[in-house]
Automatic annotation (TrEMBL), chains A, B:
GO terms for cellular component: cytosol. Allosterically activated by fructose 2,6-bisphosphate. Pathway: Carbohydrate degradation; glycolysis; D-glyceraldehyde 3-phosphate and glycerone phosphate from D-glucose: step 3/4. Keywords: Allosteric enzyme, Cytoplasm, Glycolysis, Kinase, Magnesium, Metal-binding, Transferase. It comes from Senna tora. This is Pyrophosphate--fructose 6-phosphate 1-phosphotransferase subunit alpha. The keyword Cytoplasm applies. Pfam families: PFK. NCBIfam families: PFKA_PPi (TIGR02477), PRK07085.1 (NF005482).
Length: 613, 613
């Protein structure tokens, strides 16, 4: 299996053109001299979690934020790294492939070679399995040449996505030691970055000199927090899916006789579905977060869709496009409870054929109510993160089936008076996941790769590479690093009796924020999307011309750049110190004291209320 | 329903850019003066059919080919059309939408307005239903503005695709008379163009002055014959599908654990599957024509795929991509026979639930052998062209199911020694059908629209607009018109007892030519495609840069331009006449006679053997 990795490939004309694209670097990373400025010690978003996390991560919790600045930046405390001894770095793809992953490796390799041509980058073959087995490929510019700006993870491949058991952690430690690595870069999503933090802590405890760095690469877009604005791959996935959704919308409008139910890959959270809706304007989207928040049952959802179909039929419209996130199925309360029972029995070793007879009476009733194809899918063994096998459960077919039954019932009762209701179901995921990355993802991943080098040059351990202010052009991007432990939360309960996640600090997938601006934008337009068919076709992914520089709408409407604001706050604090220094007039000091007292009081009150803000 | 058609739409940036693209015209159609040159009277490809067809089409069979030439072309017999009285033309979308359809209307409108600003173009709303009901929308440049170079048929919509029953034909006749149409342009595939020919004949018989013109627009690419090289929409569909297939290939190569079974829309023939294979190099394709020719059973196909999976496993490869045309299911002999029985019973009015009990013993056995989901799909009522509902039968899932069962059996028996075999199934069709058209389809459709005008200006009836030499740049394209009746064949038998097509002349879908160059190219590469994963990613559809001018490979490898060659032959014949005119030396005449005698003999022998060439 090794021999196939990293071999030069024949590229199509378009791939060749893309492979010649050179992503730009923000000014702070240009040249060979970069300043590192450290912020204050970090804490977690929920102060209640801080103690648990600090106990679990004694070596790596509470480390300061790091900002990378131009060598000429006028920041007195920033430290310029001038020494660049030879280092050896390993890099590994963990978890599901995401477009742009290859560019992280390219960016890292490029930064390594700029700072010292003798630096070495080793890629682990076949994901974490390659790490444990110490199977490596030395990355060279020659090897990279046909993988630059290309999709997939096929340069190195990937298999399992876990570095968690004692054996796995020990194998990783042994690999880093025996390969004499100064740094290990882990490319992945929430699970892999949690593993990276754990590995960093274990290495620190074991006095292993290898520093561990995480990179936020996941098409789900659910590794989102105060430090991370979006993930590599999300932009591409949403653009490719939106192209396909809008093609289906055009098809619906041309044939005028089908309702398309489209399920979108993206795991538990509905970020992909929300973004695609804002890009392509289908008639309807059902977000898992909405369903969970309103505790909508399968019956409620069916009714909601049927009412929409009926309202459209009254306007003589017999076509439509409805999006569902793959995580929807777990957000429906009664289905979730059923899944919970099934997973519990499966974990107890009950054979699949005997499950239904051991369900509680109400769960059994729901199970029997389901069409046979769904029953089979609900019985699948849960994934390692305790969730159901979301990509395998055809929620779109279930909903289409229930809606059709209900419409036929209404037709018989004379409530629905329209034409025949026809459905076509789709699952969009794999066909987007292997796409050529968008320009944004090429740039973002390449810059993150460079940042990984600077994190290692600064000898930081347990950090994630971050870029903020992403909605602005590349020359305005702010580059930094945040301790992964600061992104963690602790789940105190789970309705899932077998859940291994209770009480353990981890990066949990961020849900769509129902109080956020992106969701607000959706709600403002939902009625028009539903009735007026204002389908929007962003077209196929481009590298030139209109649309090239379009970024994810959910990224741009939110007012983020947390890292930038943390810096702005520092500037204010420094300014106050300059204005109110010993010798300043009595009145100025008095005014400053009074204002600072009330600011402190307000912030203390707000902070102690924690997550309930 | 009317109010929504032709309304201006909000376009995305990319759509706007595309809408400003102005397709070029070949030199012969530039300016306002075009010469028409008529060739010899046409016949059909199979001389045996000629008599039947001439009896069915007494007014429109045997008409000459028409070539449109530059006004300055030095062709003595060509006629310049100088009079351009005001004409009124109707246009209708028939059958399934195909990318580029809108540009036929734009090209036609543009030619009409160039030649006389008072010309009128009426679009029928909602397909042939709108024609029967005389629901029209006058096409203006303003209405066209947001539909130029855009996908779908939503400018006018479409519903049913038939103009065949006496009521339908009479309604069409009444519409053309009452709207005082000089021409009716029918945009569609094999069925719609057969209907167009029938309508032309009926109109001629009824002395209705409306001339009927057909335009070859179908994503299936199966309206292929000596006069028609390819169809509008085929290029786009294949490019969009190839992009998705290659994304899936990249995904397969990254995860290394799935076999993807992808079924492609395209009706009975396998043109789309062949073209996509040549563009994206998946591991395997199973063409319906191959299966039919070799009479491969479901068991043979399963074995073939299992052997491939096993061969790859021996090279430690556990991933792959396999393409199937949607028509495959009908090409498998025993399944076809089963479908034939089911359709016969359905036509007799047997209820779906009672079908299986009335099947012949062997058909019953096969039916019972099938997994339940396929049984349900096989029981669907056949389409109007007597074929099964191909888009609804999940052949990819059936094959994946059978292969998995066989691999598990081999695993038990110790024959297969590899890892677990995992499949993911896809149907690609709707998501490509609504795409923005490729540059080629934009150009081709626009030129065809112009040709429709010249056909009408020349008062031709029952013709199809044609462009040949399409593999060359637009300025080398040859424009013409061919009588639709000359493209027909007569089916003399059908295994389907209820088939309405027997004995009736019609344009039948062209199969993939297993002796053609495109198929040869596939065979030459099949082994490398299967084992070496030389996946090729043509990338998303582009309008600029590399890949923009790429054309369908199946179009380019074939040595076509029949129309051009017919013209070349004429030039030779004319030359002989010039050389060997009265007064020429005795020897020259003698030599000419001798050679012509043998040429005549050879060609007569070849022609009389008809389709058995």
């Amino acid at each position: 299996m090794d021999s196939d990795y990293g071999i030069p490939r024949e590229l199509s004309d378009l791939q060749k053109l893309r492979s010649h694209y050179q992503p730009k670097l923000p000014p702070c990373l240009e040249g060979t001299t970069v300043r590192v400025e450290y912020g204050d010690a970090t804490t977690t978003a929920d102060p209640v979690d801080a103690q648990t996390i600090s106990r679990s991560f004694p070596h790596t919790y509470g480390q300061p934020l790091a900002h990378f600045l131009r060598a000429t930046a006028k920041v007195p405390d920033a430290q310029i790294i001038t020494e660049h001894p030879v280092i050896r770095v390993g890099v590994v793809f963990c978890g599901r492939q995401s477009p742009g992953g290859h560019n992280v490796i390219w960016g890292l390799h490029s930064a390594l070679k700029i700072h010292n041509p003798d630096n070495v980058l080793l890629g682990f073959l076949g994901g974490s399995e390659g790490l444990f087995a110490q199977k490596t490929l030395e990355i060279t510019d020659n090897i990279l040449s046909t993988y630059k700006n290309q999709g997939g993870y096929d340069l190195l491949g990937r298999t399992k996505d876990q570095i968690r058991t004692t054996e796995q952690v020990n194998a990783a430690l042994a690999a880093c030691k025996s390969l004499k690595l100064d740094g290990l870069v882990i490319i992945g999503g929430v699970t892999s970055n949690t593993d990276a933090a754990q590995l960093a802590e274990t290495f620190a405890e074991a006095k292993c000199p290898t520093k561990v760095v995480g990179v936020p690469v996941t098409l789900n877009g659910d590794l989102k927090n105060q430090f991370v604005e979006t993930n590599v791959g999300f932009d591409t996935i949403c653009k490719v899916n939106s192209q396909l959704i809008s093609n289906v919308c055009t098809d619906a409008l041309s044939a005028e006789k089908y309702y398309y139910f489209i399920r979108l890959m993206g795991r538990k959270a509905s970020h992909v579905a929300l973004e695609c809706t804002l890009q392509s304007h289908p008639n309807m989207v059902i977000l898992g977060e909405e369903v969970a928040a309103s505790k909508l049952t399968l019956f409620d959802l069916t009714k909601q869709v049927c009412d929409a179909v009926q309202a459209r039929a009254e306007q003589d419209k017999y076509h439509g496009v409805i999006l569902l996130p793959e995580g929807l199925i777990e957000s429906i309360p009664e289905v979730y409870a059923l899944l919970k029972e099934i997973h519990g029995l499966l974990r107890q070793g009950v054979a699949v054929d005997n499950i239904s007879s051991q369900l509680s009476p109400w769960a059994f009733a729901l199970f029997e109510f389901m069409p046979p194809f769904i029953r089979k899918q609900l019985l699948l063994y849960p994934e390692s993160d305790d969730s159901a096998q979301l990509s395998q459960i055809e929620t779109e077919k279930l909903l289409a089936y229930l809606v059709e039954a209900e419409i036929n019932k209404r037709l018989k009762e004379g409530i629905y008076k329209g034409k025949k209701f026809n459905t076509i179901c789709h699952f969009f995921g794999y066909q987007a996941r292997g796409s050529l990355p968008s320009k944004f993802d090429c740039d973002y991943a390449y810059v993150l790769g460079h940042i990984c080098y600077h994190i290692l040059a600064a000898s930081l351990n347990g950090y994630m590479a971050t870029v903020t202010n992403l909605k602005s052009p590349v020359n305005k991007w702010r580059c930094g690093a945040a301790p992964i432990a600061a992104m963690m939360t602790v789940k105190r309960w789970s309705p899932n009796p077998g859940a291994t996640s209770i009480g353990k600090p981890a990066i949990h997938p961020a849900n769509v924020d129902l109080r956020g601006k992106a969701y607000e934008l959706l709600r403002q337009n939902a009625a028009r999307f539903l009735m007026d068919d204002i389908y929007r076709n962003p077209g196929p992914l481009q590298f030139d011309g209109p649309g090239t520089d379009a970024k994810a709408i959910t990224l741009c409407v939110e007012d983020r750049d947390y890292m930038g604001r943390i810096k702005d706050l520092q500037v204010y604090l420094d300014k106050i110190r300059t204005i109110v220094k010993p010798g300043c007039p009595q009145e100025v000091l008095k005014a400053a004291l009074s204002i600072m007292a009330s600011v402190t009081e307000v912030l203390s009150t707000m902070s102690s209320s924690g997550n309930n803000l």
